[in-house]
Every structure is written in C-alpha cells, then in structure tokens.
Amino acid sequence: MDVATFRQQFTEFSDAAKYPDPLVSFWLDVVTRMVRPERWADLLDVGLGLALAHHLVLAVRDQGSAQAGKVPGTVLGTQTSKSVDTVSVSYDVSAVTNEGGGFWNMTSYGVRFLGMARLFGAGGVQL
C-alpha cells in the first residue's frame, strides 16, 4: 500500500490539506511494521488501511486540540451522555466496541481493525 492507494480506498482521507502526505506516510510506515502480511494475507491492504485510518484520526484530533490551545494527546473515552439545559443525549457503545479493545475502541476504524485482527488470529477451526 502507498499513500495514493490509501486515499483511493479510504476516500474520506482524500483531503491532502487536512491529512498531509508526510503525516499519512509516517503512520503508514508504522502500521506496515505492525500489521503482519502472513496474518492478513490477501486482506493486507484492508488491515493496513484500517490501522492507518485509526492513527490518522487520532493524530488529526490531537492537532486540532493543539490548535485550539488544548493539551494534545489527551485520552478521551467514548461519550456516553451529554446534557444541555433540559435536553440529554446518551449512547450505548457496548454493542459496537471490542471488549478489552482499549486504544482501538477510540475510533470506528480501530474497532473494525481489532475485530478483524482477532478473527484472523483465531487459528483453524476443528469440527
């Protein structure tokens, strides 16, 4: 996978101003070292893309925090409720997150990546 292929497969990251090539290349190098080809086989680009998208979302989130004068890198959990005046909203995220997924549960890309990685690492099934 390269930057152009990633942008074609994950079109939501096609904005090079928001997701600059050096940032994408940096995280692509990282995920290329952690996503094992022998485990993902012909779905390697899917694994690389999901892991890369996860890291890019977190990186851009941190950049936005820094630009807003906040501390970048602050860990944010999944919002489960919010109240403004008499209006309240909450979400049940238990159905769409991976138990024990920790860091990977911070984005939908990470949730998908970890779910697939766990399936591919399960080994053969004997009946």
Can you characterise this structure?
This protein has 127 residues and is mainly alpha-helical. The protein has one domain (3-120). Helices cover 49% and strands 6% of the residues. It has helices spanning 3-9, 21-34, 37-40, 44-67, 108-120; strands spanning 81-84, 87-90. A two-stranded antiparallel ribbon has the order 1-2. Strand 1 and strand 2 form a beta hairpin. Helix 2 (21-34) packs across helix 4 and helix 4 (44-67) packs antiparallel against helix 5. The longest helix has 24 residues, at 44-67. The model has no long low-confidence stretch (mean pLDDT 84).
**Intertermini distance:** 36 Å
Basic shape: globular
- Evaluate the radius of gyration: 17 Å
The neighbouring-strand order within the major sheet is 1-2
Number of domains: 1
Q: Which regions contain 5 or more consecutive residues with pLDDT less than 50?
A: none
Backbone structural class:
mainly alpha
Order of helices and strands: HHHHEEH
- State the total count of DSSP E strands: 2
Helix content: 40-55%
Mean pLDDT: 84
Q: Number of helical runs? A: 5
How many strands, which pairing sense, and closed or not: the largest β-sheet? Answer: 2 strands, antiparallel
Relative strand content: 5-15%
